[in-house]
Design a protein that fits this description.
Blueprint (H helix, E strand, L loop, with lengths): L1 E7 L5 H10 L4 E3 H11 L1 H11 L4 E2 L2 E2 L1 H8 L3 H24 L5 E5 L14 E6 L2 H12 L3 H9 L4 H5 L4 E4 L6 H22 L1
Parallel strand pairs: 1-5, 1-6, 2-5, 6-7
Antiparallel strand pairs: 3-4
């Protein structure tokens, strides 16, 4: 089984690309969705976050997301600590999920694939890129927010340029080049690689 990480900055359209993959019959695991569930259901994560931030980080057994965001927004050290608490558990969930899939290729969508070095655990990685102005426009429309808010969020992420040299494949979601054809070309290479691996095993 090939395990493929798929990522992209805010507004890049990685969720849309993932929906294409699912439509074509390939399983996709969503790390962000898994993390949101684990934060409120995994006792180990909850206890570590409480130890780090205090009991008030949870209200009525629900994570106070606004409080957490405010605490880690300008503190990269705290952000790294939170990621180190959550992401190993998300990774374990992905591996468990993958073990039940029947496809020879599975995808793992993750917002901070390269920033956490998790990309090294995948056979291949796919980066979704888009022009900055287009990404800003998409997020403003999607979240009904101001340009300044989008730029603030983007400033906390790696740029496409920082990620590009680490990616196995790059998809340009600039609304000029067909996404379907780009996805199809990558799938052909992945299927070929999967078939070669199958012959060797």
């Amino acid at each position: 089984m090939l395990k493929v990480g798929i990522t992209g900055g805010i507004g890049s359209g990685k969720s849309y690309v993932c929906s294409i993959l699912e439509h074509l019959g390939f399983p996709v695991f969503y790390s962000d969705k898994s993390a949101k569930i684990l934060i409120e259901t995994n006792d180990s994560i909850k206890q570590e976050l409480i130890h780090l931030f205090g009991n008030e980080i949870y209200k009525d057994n629900k994570l106070d997301k606004i409080r957490l965001s405010n605490l880690i927004f300008t503190d990269n050290l705290l952000l790294e600590k939170v990621n180190s608490i959550i992401h190993p558990n998300v990774r374990e969930c992905f591996n468990n999920w993958a073990s039940f899939q029947k496809s020879n290729i599975v995808f793992n969508e993750a917002a901070i694939l390269f920033e956490t070095d998790i990309y090294k655990t995948f056979d291949y990685t796919v980066l979704i890129t888009a022009p900055l102005d287009l990404k800003i426009e998409r997020v403003m429309k999607r979240d009904s927010c101001k340009k300044e808010d989008v730029l603030t969020r983007m400033n906390n992420q790696w740029t496409d340029e920082q990620k590009s040299h680490l990616a196995s494949f790059i998809i340009s979601n600039d609304e000029k080049i067909s996404l379907i054809s780009q996805v199809d070309n990558i799938l052909k290479e992945l299927i070929h690689s999967s078939n070669l691996r199958g012959k060797r095993s």
